[in-house]
Please model this.
Amino acid sequence: MDISASAIKQLRQETSAGVMDCKRALIQANGDYEQAKAFLRQRGLAIAAKKANRVAEQGLVESYIHAGGRIGVLVEVNCETDFVARLPGVKELAHDLAMQIAAQKPEYVTPDLVPAEVLEAKRSAFREQALQEGKSPEVADKIVEGKLESFYQEVCLTEQPFIKDGELTVKELITQKIARVGENIRVRRFRRYELGGQDT
Model:
């Protein structure tokens, strides 16, 4: 099958995958662009899953100041080697994450870092609300799970839609970068400051 250079280039720009990976994905998808994109995303998830348990103790701290000095963010992004930490793509990722934190005000990095008491309070409040609306206990439990997903998207950095591309979550953005650089990357912590407000 003949795959055009423009299709490869466009797929590469959208996914950050390598040229040969993009070409293989398009061939495997018989030229179907969306299918090729989905294939690369799945491949990225598989690569990220393999790297997830690898130790990431190197990295960088990125800062971002927004709104004329009214909002400031520090974020620590870890990877496996100092070499990868210095790559422009990793620096760009850290900067994008700092911008995300400034704009979207997450409170936690991942859902597993939400304190149990916060989660239990939310779960109880959502369930009580559903029961008061006349839902059966079984339906209420399903509603609670759906509302918890929305809660995670609001307060957890990795679950939020990426501000530069709403079709991607921050977690998927990081996964793409892991597939690209071949090392585990994770956000260890962040701090957001707002003038006259509470820092998170």
Summary: Helices lie at 5-15, 19-28, 33-51, 82-85, 88-104, 116-132, 137-155, 170-181. The mean pLDDT is 87. The two ends are 53 Å apart (CA to CA). The CA atoms of residues 1 and 27 lie 7 Å apart.
